[in-house]
Amino acid sequence: MGSTDDYSFRTFPAAAADPGTNTWIQAERRGFHDTRATDEQLARTADHLVTDRRQLTGAYRGDELVATFSAFESTLNVGPNTLLPVSLVSNVTVRPTHRRNGILRRMMTDHLRGAAAAGMAIAALTVSEATIYRRFGFGVATWVSHVALTTDTRFRMLGEPRGRCELIEAADLTTLGPKVFAAFHAAHPGSVDRHAATWNRVMGAATEKDDANPGVYAAAHYDEAGQVDGYVSYLFKGWDTAPHTLEVIDLVAADDNAYLGLWEFLASVDLVERIEWEAAPADDPLRWAVADWRSLALTGLEDWLWIRVLDVVAAFEARAYVGSGSMVLQVTDALGYADGTYRLAVADGRATVTRDDSAAPDVSVEAPTLGSLYLGGVDAVTLAAAGQLVQHTPNAALRVRVLLAPVASVYGSTHF
Which sites bind acetyl-CoA (predicted)? Predict the structure, then answer.
């Protein structure tokens, strides 16, 4: 590996009509193989970055920008109605001609140092490559299913969801969508709040990369009191596609009944035989709600949210718990943030965490595994079987499974 000595690093807030921001946007697009941004796309992207209050970092060799990195603050649900501030990392690119010079390590370690100093207990990211971020202490904490539902004449749901669905204009999601998402976000551990660019994509408006798509349609679900508690936006994939297919762009429900009601609506759309969605819950209740279990095909699994614990005490005291119990957890962290041995005592759904490096551990993990365990969506017994959790006392992994069980279904649908 080379050295960062030949590079300068600059971090600055995104700004509209700013040459530095525009140069950064074009470099980030090149890194992800997107077309060069038009003036309109530059303005739209900058506006979203500003709205998110993103801090942009660039690595420069002379005047040439060769790597990009951004960070911004959001909230992560760590238990129903428990939203923890989180530092999100995004837009990471390094030119292939400048790799193996320590550029990413410099940008990431600088960021984590700053986030920890600012009091952030958690950092998180979603990734385009799954082999890069464990070295920085990130572990997979949530994942999503790619699913395809067959909706031919055999389709039937085992029960009738309450409420009703109605078609709406996709543009209505500008005001309706954030309200529904707020209810979803409050209910699901693992959910990250939406960022500014999301809503244009969801409703088919012009995005940072594409023109407006008039083929995007939407429907809302209304509860028995007539209040909107879910929505879906979708796109017909074309008459040349066999079977005729709807692609779900976004489906958000405040509760399980609305979720099933939206699927019932999608299955009722005329001249369509298949529904595809690439961000369904990992353990999708729809499979258990349809008469033909095989009508819902799992076409893929995708790692989604990666978590990096920066402050073990603050992070584990912030999340919600189901019951009571205790354990001693030893963490090895090459970057130091989570390193140590911790006593975790849970009573009445809340935890007290104290560092005690003299304590004998029940289990030992490395920092990425700690991130995977944090929300409770990853089974400690599975991690032990994979050699990623070491048990020092009998049935320790089973005890961790019970102690860290999530209060609600772990699921998020925000990519950033």
Answer: 92-94, 100-105, 128-129
